[in-house]
Design brief:
Elements lengths: L14 H10 L2 E3 L3 E7 L6 E6 L6 H18 L7 E7 L7 H21 L13 H5 L1
Parallel strand pairs: 3-4
Antiparallel strand pairs: 1-2, 2-4
Length: about 140
């Protein structure tokens, strides 16, 4: 049986990695959330979750995050390698694990392919800004 863990190397944790995905502007609507993608230059996909207080109580937010992490962990083989996937959760009733798995499988691969074809989009400039800001 292959390892289906979710170690820290599979998580987007740093602010600069989240900002890179936001500035890449590659986004898909999942209904209950938006998914953003950016190339990360690694040999594996990573998942980041952004969830605000307006989604609900801490119990609800933690349940949704746990379900999204498990869905990613179970479907990581179907995710494109070398891509950071950021899920921005909107207020909604928690869904089933199968709903989250299907949403990730349906939207992550095409969005990841777009991110890999445009790897310079959203790259963070060494001085702290994005290259898009330098061109403007």
């Amino acid at each position: 049986m292959a390892d289906l863990g979710f170690p820290s190397r599979m998580r987007v944790r740093l602010d600069r990695d989240f900002r890179r995905a936001y500035s890449a502007r590659l986004r898909r609507d999942l209904g209950f959330a938006s998914m953003l993608a950016a190339a990360n230059g690694l040999q594996h996909p990573r998942l980041g979750i952004s969830i605000g207080r307006r989604v609900g109580t801490a119990v609800r937010r933690n349940r949704i995050k746990r379900l999204l992490r498990v869905a990613f962990r179970l479907e990581q083989r179907g995710m494109p390698a070398g891509v950071d996937l950021i899920v921005q959760v909107r207020p909604h009733e928690p869904r089933t694990l199968q709903d989250y798995r299907e949403a990730l499988l349906r939207h992550a691969p095409p969005l990841g392919e777009l991110a890999l074809k445009a790897p310079d989009r959203g790259r963070i400039h060494p001085m702290g800004g994005s290259e898009a800001a330098d061109e403007a």
